[in-house]
Design goal:
alpha/beta, Gyrase A, domain 2, four-stranded antiparallel beta sheet, four-stranded parallel beta sheet
Length: 585
């Protein structure tokens, strides 16, 4: 199904052609003077020079032909603007087609793409904190948008589960409990099923070991040795590492579940460890990589670069792999297993240069296919009301679960704590949890991803204004109306009459362009803006219309059909944003 403005532009183009002018002049846009008209066409101005005519003359010639079942209230304004409204009957037909179509008329893509979204990126053995929020929330929404648009999409968490951090943890565990069988090279039996630590202990061990390594050179040397043993496949170290992974992933899943974020692949840097040696040899044999100050690097600079781009380092001077190495190896594996058309990386924008190096290296060396687009979505920081990176009151980095708990408490303090628990004890099952999640996600996603933003808890949890709870309140209001209606909502729309009713019809037509933009630009904030616009249009309609008390049953059924469609569209949009509405508030 075509977007409304495209349909109108085609029809206007036909009229331009009928009047003897180039149909390209028929492009229609939303009016920039909503007090005067709904839509406008400026084609007379753009064609004036080409036709050697006064634009008013062109506009008047076209305007005389703008009669029929599409354009009404046509007027011409100097120096040649065509202003008009839409026929209510035509508008009803367009929205009815949306309502009757799958995905509200969203067309299938010309080519179904294989897309990988790389987001999340937490380190194991460390709790999720507010610094992980944006990658998870933005990445999840992008994944959902692309899937809904008709593409095959795989979400990969890409955990940090390899390297020195694992050696630090293992070394600290060995110092604390050297008798564990994992450190006994002669032990040949089965290792214990139960891990020798809890997630809380593990989260305390890593920062302690990291701090110790900065002060104790001998300990850091042991950690580097432990890292090598792990990567060389020493049985006990691999078994202990697996325990760390199992405990950490279970905790990560629990926290991501609270955020309604899920991944198809729970891969980490370790997944590609066995690919590295072959990849390095390939880069050497192909003449791509060379030694520089002891390190193995690939030049990625180009003649047209406006600023220096350093070489991409593949191996450090001591022969150890680094993030570049595992990211390149991951691209190699994705090429072999998925042949992706697009890989999207949702990462802090401060990593832009790093990813530019990796992308260029992968393309130059053939580690990814020529057809594969590598796209970096760099997000800004989440700041507190003081404009500085969000912290706890004590000045530390806030854990995500604590942030969620504080938002839930704020929702309750708003005096609208719902009583109903909708689905047992599942994460996010209570209405309060759903409202809190909407506040959190919408507060983040409504900002353009690349921009920093201030997290204002009181503002984001408000039931008024441009917030997630306001959207939920609108949906719940419609659900209440439909319950009171007492039977299945009709699907046949009626021709709009009142201004608010027609404005709601027009707002519904914005779904297709909003989706098109969100998919093309990977921009959830566009859907946020649309959802807010639609919610406002519904609430204006609600306040000026007697819906349930309307005595004319035909009118009442038309109102109910319109409200039901609005609810369906809003529910679809918030699902793409990653949250849902409760039944009551």
């Amino acid at each position: 199904m075509k977007k409304l403005l495209d349909v109108l532009s085609e029809k206007m183009g036909q009229v331009f052609e009928q009047a003897g002018f180039d149909r390209a002049g028929g492009k229609v846009s939303l009016s920039n003077r909503a007090d005067l008209c709904e839509y406008q066409c400026n084609g007379a101005l753009s064609l004036a020079k080409q036709c050697h005519k006064n634009p008013m003359e062109i506009a008047e010639a076209v305007g005389k032909l703008l009669v029929g079942d599409v354009f009404t209230d046509v007027s011409i304004a100097k120096p040649g603007f065509l202003n008009f409204n839409l026929s209510p009957e035509f508008l009803k037909g367009f929205v009815q087609e949306m309502a009757d179509s799958e995905k509200f008329g969203l067309p299938a893509p010309e080519k179904e793409k294989m897309i990988i979204v790389d987001y999340g990126g937490p380190n194991v053995a460390k709790p999720l904190h507010v610094g992980h929020l944006r990658a998870a929330v933005i990445g999840e929404s992008i994944k959902r948008i692309l899937r809904y648009a008709g593409h095959r999409v795989v979400g990969d968490i890409h955990m940090g589960d390899w390297g020195l951090q694992m050696g630090l943890i293992i070394s600290e565990l060995k110092e604390r409990n050297p008798a564990l069988p994992y450190f006994d090279d002669s032990f040949l039996g089965e290792y214990p099923e139960e891990a020798p630590f809890t997630i809380s202990e593990l989260e305390e061990i890593y920062p302690a070991a990291s701090a110790k390594s900065k002060e104790d050179a001998a300990f850091k040397e042991k950690a580097m040795e432990a890292t090598k043993k792990l990567q060389d496949g020493v049985r006990g170290y691999r078994a202990l590492w697996q325990k760390i992974i199992d405990i950490s992933v279970a905790d990560l899943k629990k926290n991501y579940d609270k955020l309604k974020v899920d991944f198809d692949l729970w891969n980490g840097e370790s997944t590609v460890h066995n690919e590295i040696a072959g990849m390095v040899q390939y880069l050497k044999d192909g003449g791509y990589a060379y030694m520089s100050d002891g390190a193995l690097v690939v030049d990625v600079a180009r003649e047209d670069d406006k600023k220096p781009i350093p070489p991409c380092m593949v191996l450090k001077s001591d022969g150890a792999a680094l993030y570049n190495t595992t990211d390149l190896a991951t691209l190699l594996v994705r090429k072999r297993e998925y042949h992706p058309d697009l890989i999207v990386y949702v990462v802090d924008k401060r990593q832009e240069l790093y990813f530019e190096q990796v992308f260029r290296c992968a393309k130059k060396t053939g580690l990814t296919e020529e057809k594969t687009e590598l796209k970096f979505i760099g997000f800004g920081t989440m700041n507190g009301p003081d404009g500085k990176p969000f912290k706890t009151r004590e000045g530390g980095v806030m854990r995500l679960e604590r942030l969620i708990a504080e938002i839930e408490a704020q929702v309750k303090s708003e005096g609208r704590e719902p009583d109903d628990v909708l689905s047992g004890d599942a994460p996010g099952s209570s209405a309060t949890e759903k409202i809190a999640l909407a506040a959190l996600k919408y507060g983040d996603l409504s900002n353009q991803a690349t921009k920093d933003y201030c997290f204002d808890m009181k503002k984001f949890t408000s039931f008024e204004g441009d917030t997630g709870p306001y959207l939920l309140y609108t949906i719940v209001r419609i659900k209440s109306i439909l319950r009171k209606y007492g039977k299945d909502a009709p699907t046949a729309l009626r021709t709009p009459e009142a201004a608010g009713e027609k404005a709601l019809f027009r707002a519904l037509t914005g779904f297709l362009p909003a989706m098109e933009y969100a998919e093309r630009e990977l921009a959830p904030h566009r859907l946020c803006a649309y959802a807010y616009e639609l919610a406002n249009a519904f609430n204006s309609f609600y306040h000026e219309t007697r819906i349930l008390s309307e005595e004319d049953s035909t009118k009442r059924d038309g109102y109910i059909a319109l409200a039901s469609l609005c609810k369906e569209v809003l529910e679809q949009v918030i699902d793409l944003l990653g949250f849902e509405a409760p039944e009551q508030m």
